[in-house]
Amino acid sequence: MFPSMPRAELSLFSQLKRELGALYEEPPVQAIRVCRLHARLVNG
């Protein structure tokens, strides 16, 4: 993946990817509301 990345950082990166994946699969209700409001503001 990233050959120059130290092993400890690679482990943290993998952990972050897992957490983001879980968040993407089951986002909290508040996050969905914030995203919808933001989209309304941005898109008019």
Explain how this protein is built.
The protein is an all-alpha fold and about 45 residues long. The protein has one domain. The protein contains two helices and no strands. The chain starts with 6 loop residues before the first helix and ends with a helix.
Descriptive labels:
mainly alpha, 44 residues, 2 helices, 0% strand
Structure summary:
The protein is an all-alpha fold and 44 residues long.
- Rough shape? elongated
Structural class: mainly alpha
| Overall pLDDT score | 88
Helix content: over 70%
Whole-number tally of structural domains: 1
- What Rg do the Cα atoms give? 16 Å
> Runs with pLDDT <50, length 5+?
none
Amino-to-carboxy terminus distance: 40 Å
Number of strands: 0
- Approximate strand percentage: under 5%
Characterize the biggest β-sheet.
none
H/E element sequence: HH
Q: What's the tally of helices?
A: 2
Summarize the helices and strands and which ones pair or pack.
Layout: H1 7-25, H2 29-43
